[in-house]
Amino acid sequence: MSTFLADKAENLSVEGPSATFTYRRIGRPGGTPVVLLNRFRATIDWWDPEFLDLLAADHDVILFDTVGTGYSTGEPRDSLDGFADGAIEFIETLGLPQVDLLGWSMGGFVAQRIALRRPELVRRLVVAGSGPNGWLPGAPAMNEKVVAIMQKPGGGNADDLLYLFYPDTETGRAAGRRHLDHISTRLNAGGPAVSETTAQGMFTAVSQLLQVTPEQVRAELEAIKHPLLYICGQHDVMVPAYNSYAAIRYLDAATLIIYGDAGHALMFQHAKTFVADVTTFLAA
């Protein structure tokens, strides 16, 4: 089993108005902190430590459990605005004047809501395995198998995770198995899972994306003035890469990178390449 520095990072806590937040802070001090926003049904234990070590080599990296999730206390949220407000509360409670946001999956939707609600708090945005806050015309419909797995108690088993996050290829499945091995140290330590109440709130929040009109999506994108990197996998069965491709025409300062052989967990499947792309974007 590999040894990663991120697996040794201690849990820290900070008391906010609506929750006691648990977080970990790793990497190089100085510069703009990179705050990670997690996916549906995940706690801080689910971030791949190989990815974290690579990102922390050149950045001050902060990962946290949001209100009512995992190690953090508080009342679970059930809207993207609610999750955005929770993240804003955490960032302000830490006393951070400005941050870079890296949101994966649901976290990518939340990151854009933060940029809209508190633009001065955000310097740059990375939206990974995600897309704009709504489905755009021409995008594939939400995958019914994906929806069924999302609603399983506990989020399904290892085979479900491999289906959701990695391409159905030999190299894709091998990458998925490596990821499961990497996160086993934290998961086997017995930290808290996402409760079904919290998971249902998350599901309600992401389901609202399907109710947003194309006109609303366009207006929200046009309101985001931050440099923004959409980075996604061509074989993502959860959030179609097409949505990111269609969105950039409405953004003032957008970059799009699509990995042709990757799925939803592209930052773990191609950790070195992903971190290099993100580092270049954040340094621009």
Summing up helix and strand content along with how strands pair, one would put the structural category as alpha/beta
The counted number of beta strands is 8
Largest sheet: 8 strands, mixed
CATH fold category name: Rossmann fold
Low-confidence stretches: none
Summed up, the domain count is 1
Rounded Rg: 17 Å
Q: What percent of the residues sit in helical stretches (DSSP H or I)?
A: 25-40%
Task: Give the helix tally.
Answer: 11
Portion in strands: 15-25%
Order of helices and strands: EEEHEHEHEHHHHHEHEHH
Q: CATH superfamily name?
A: Alpha/Beta hydrolase fold, catalytic domain
Strand order of the largest sheet: 1-2-4-3-5-6-7-8
- Under the CATH scheme, the architecture is 3-Layer(aba) Sandwich
| Average pLDDT, all residues | 95
User: Kindly, what is the distance between the CA atoms of the first and last residues, rounded to a whole number of angstroms?
Assistant: 36 Å
Which overall shape is indicated by the principal axes computed on the Cα atoms? globular
Any idea of the CATH class?
Alpha Beta
